[in-house]
């Protein structure tokens, strides 16, 4: 029943650690994204929690979370995003996109399209899972 947890204990021993992992094909993507990250209890004790503030602060506004969801689901241009009343004016959309991009949650790809970078898909979905369950 706890196959992931049992594997973590088998790998790291009784001291344990924390890990997250995922394998998913995002909507509209041609191939799956796979990601795994984990740290031992010892490595976790060396982390400065405050170092996460920038990445987590980008989630501090519900519009940003809704933008991330829309982009993850395939709405990729500012014109498309601005047409959705939930996101406000074009200027407001750009403001939120820049905040998310500077924190690493989005990237601007050619011809004005935005996407969640592959290496951020599983971390993003993990945070959403944590926040909703």
Automatic annotation (TrEMBL):
CDD domains, per database record: HTH_ARSR
Entry's transmembrane regions: none
Domain of life: Bacteria
Protein name as annotated: Helix-turn-helix domain-containing protein
Native source species: Brevibacterium metallidurans
